[in-house]
Amino acid sequence: MCDITDEEFEKIYLPFYNNVNDYLNNYVIPDLVVFYLANEYSRHCLSECNLINHINSAIDVFNCRCDIIRLIPKVKEILKIKYNLVVKKTNPLRLKRYY
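Above: the chain sequence. Below: its structure as tokens.
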């Protein structure tokens, strides 16, 4: 590995990492969080935490910046579309089958 200048970092590498982070936040993380919540629900192991705590637990595997407030509407939408689940209450989190 070679050293890079601050200018190279700002111009080349930072946009690259920001682009990867955007991709994670727009596609990977929402789907992972929804899978995590649906799996907890189906296995009857939702803890008495609020929705934000559950999301934080799911994204702990990633080392990236994540705007949880922006993530919540995506999570709710994917939960409904993919797993027929709706968030009935956020604190503590309560999910219900959507029919």
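The chain has one domain: 6-97.
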